[in-house]
Amino acid sequence: MRGQPIGAPLGVVPEPDLGHHGDVEVGEGLVDLAVNVRRAPMPPWLAGPLAASLGDLARYPDPAPARAAVAARHRRPPAEVLLTAGAAEGFVLIAQALRGVRRPVVVHPQFTEPEAALAAAGHEVERVLLDAADGFRLDPARVPADADLVMVGNPTNPTSVLHPAATIAVLARPGRVLVVDEAFADTTAAPGVPGEPESLAGRRDLPGLLVLRSLTKTWGLAGLRIGYLLGEAALVDRLARVQPLWAVSTPALAAATACAAPEAVAAERAIAAGLAADRDHLLARLATLPGVRVAGRPASAFVLLEIPGADRIRLALRERGWAVRRGDTFPGLGPDWLRVAVRDRRTTDAFVEALADILEA
Ligand SMILES: Cc1ncc(COP(=O)(O)O)c(C=O)c1O
Fold first, then answer.
1. Could you tell me the pLDDT band of residue 6, with boundaries at 50, 70 and 90?
2. What structural domains does the chain harbor?
3. Interval 18-40: pLDDT, tens
4. 3-state SS string over the chain?
5. Is the model's pTM score more than 0.85?
6. Atom of ligand 1 nearest to the CA of 91
7. Probe residue for ligand 1, chosen from 23, 92, 94, 113 as the CB with the greatest number of ligand atoms within 8 Å
């Protein structure tokens, strides 16, 4: 099925606002369940290098050490790494560098910036909408065979669904660039699996694969802007050519180096395991609420809820001091959807009580 091209006649379904993000839902005095950035004291192995980098700001940034560190972390040569000002910059570089693609496809519901960046660069985007009824399962057969650029999130924001790596790998082929947004891959964990389950970050055998990573979520660095791209050297080089000079600042590079160290990766794994337990708690509490349905099987730092009248419930939550992310700005969702960040148990308990009160009223 051909998706909904940008700018096509919209019929009765309003076009979602792709430029809306959870940060604008947060306000003074509200508990933030809208933004999926972890809030925790910065570990000394990160705070130290960051602070030290401020003494070096008179020099232009040198990405080489950070590039080498990130490459070592993912067991790839440095030429297969491009540091970016957050994963968000990666979408823009892809959209700008790959202007020649003829049939770009974005798998939704997902983060809206990939499509927004493509549209801003003049691409006519097609959407493949995954089904809520099917747990937002990815069926590779839904992606048109001649799509020469495919963008998918894993785990996906806002559904929190983690697609099997093997299913995504099926989408890679010569003549196609396959972009996998792994901004939240470090939040996933599976019992008995030492690393990130279903990540393709270390795969060097898949043609046209580009993996985007973010360091802003788990490490609370949204304001610093640091992420990176991994892929074939020739493809990475094409993206690097359209990147503004010195796009990634010296402090951001220091953070990238620190976050690539084995100590940081081990800490990430421990955080992901704790998050899984907190998420199970949230899911168990939500399961007690009639009319609240969790879509698919959440695997990341947030869960997506379907509640009849969620748009009104969101406003009632705001009145009680809770900011949650509206779901209707994601293609494929609508007014009955909300996204909620996984937080500590005490916050979760208080949130679920507020939600229960609203639902009972
Ligand atoms: C799925 C997803 N990808 C990428 C990004 C961009 O992250 P960054 O802060 O690294 O630019 C976000 C931010 O919300 C996101 O949710």
1. very low
2. 22-41+265-360 (3.90.1150.10), 59-261 (3.40.640.10)
3. 887 777 778 788 999 999 899 89
4. CCCCCCCCCCCCCCCCCCCCCHHHHCCCCCEEECCCCCCCCCCHHHHHHHHHHHHHCCCCCCCHHHHHHHHHHCCCCHHHEEEECHHHHHHHHHHHHCCCCCCEEEEECCCCHHHHHHHHCCCCCEEEECCCCCCCCCCHHHCCCCCCEEEEECCCCCCCECCCHHHHHCCCCCCCEEEEECCCHHHCCCCCCCCCCCCCCCCCCCCCEEEEEECCCCCCCCCCCCEEEEECHHHHHHHHHHCCCCCCCHHHHHHHHHHCCHHHHHHHHHHHHHHHHHHHHHHHHHCCCCCCEECCCECCCEEEEECCCHHHHHHHHHHCCEEEEECCCCCCCCCCEEEEECCCHHHHHHHHHHHHHHHHC
5. yes
6. 4
7. 113
